[in-house]
Write a structure and sequence with these properties.
It is built from five helices and six strands; from the N terminus they run E-H-E-H-E-E-H-E-H-E-H. It has 205 residues and is α/β, with parallel strands linked by helices. It has one domain: 3-Layer(aba) Sandwich (Rossmann fold), CATH 3.40.50. Strands 1, 2, 3, 4, 5 and 6 form a six-stranded mixed β-sheet that branches. It is globular and about 50 Å long. One of its GO terms (molecular function) is oxidoreductase activity. This is Flavodoxin family protein. Pfam families: FMN_red. InterPro entries: Flavoprotein-like_sf (IPR029039), FMN_Rdtase-like_dom (IPR005025).
Length: 205
């Protein structure tokens, strides 16, 4: 692939709400995708709850497992946007399942003997009307970096609503300026890093 080809993005939505239910995570990811599009990086969003992603730590768990198709989309992307709501102070159970399925990539290498997820960028978006965004982001960053993704500077965006209230992100009349500014920085840095890694790949063993 040429270094000036358009960047490809995949956004994984780990909301527990199946389509077509309104999802704050879906809104946040749509905003991240829009921000990335301003830097020549375009793609799509996949809502994990709509797919039959089996529990496990193998590439293919068989018996109708739809993770292999999602995995192919991840491998085809330059940038992964990992989105999750916060439930009881933690990332969703589906976010944890995605992390567990990505564990299989630790033993996968490319033609040069490098981990197969090297040269790909990952960012995180978290929403919730309770505390926990920083912890969820930190946990997800660690997992994504472990399996080979590179995290850009300020590669996380989030919104936490007022504790013990019922207002969700998609209920807001407008996006808070700090969230919009953070999302814009995330997109700018992610697109820049993805182009740097495309032009100068990590060295082989």
């Amino acid at each position: 692939m040429t270094t000036d080809a358009p960047l490809r993005v995949l956004a994984l939505n780990c909301s527990l709400k199946p389509s077509p239910a309104s999802s704050s995570t879906e809104l946040m990811l749509r905003q991240v995708l829009d921000a990335l599009a301003e830097h020549g990086a375009t793609g799509e969003q996949v809502r994990i709850v709509d797919r039959n992603v089996a529990p496990g730590v193998e590439i293919d768990m068989g018996d109708g497992d739809e993770w292999p198709a999602v995995r192919e989309q991840i491998l085809a992307a330059d940038i992964l946007v990992f989105g999750t709501p916060v439930w009881v102070g933690h990332a969703s159970s589906l976010a944890q399942r995605v992390i567990e399925r990505l564990d299989a990539e630790l033993s996968e290498t490319d033609e040069a003997g490098r981990p197969i997820l090297f040269d790909r960028v990952a960012v995180v978006a978290v929403v919730g009307n309770e505390d926990g965004a920083h912890k969820a982001t930190a946990d997800i960053f660690q997992a994504l970096n472990d399996v080979g993704f590179t995290i850009p500077a300020q590669g996380g965006t989030y919104w936490n609503g007022e504790a013990m209230q019922t207002v969700d992100y998609h209920d807001l009349d407008e996006t808070p300026e700090p969230v919009a500014a953070t999302t814009a920085t995330l997109a700018r840095n992610a697109a820049h890093l993805a182009r740097v890694l495309r032009a100068a790949r990590y060295p082989a063993e």
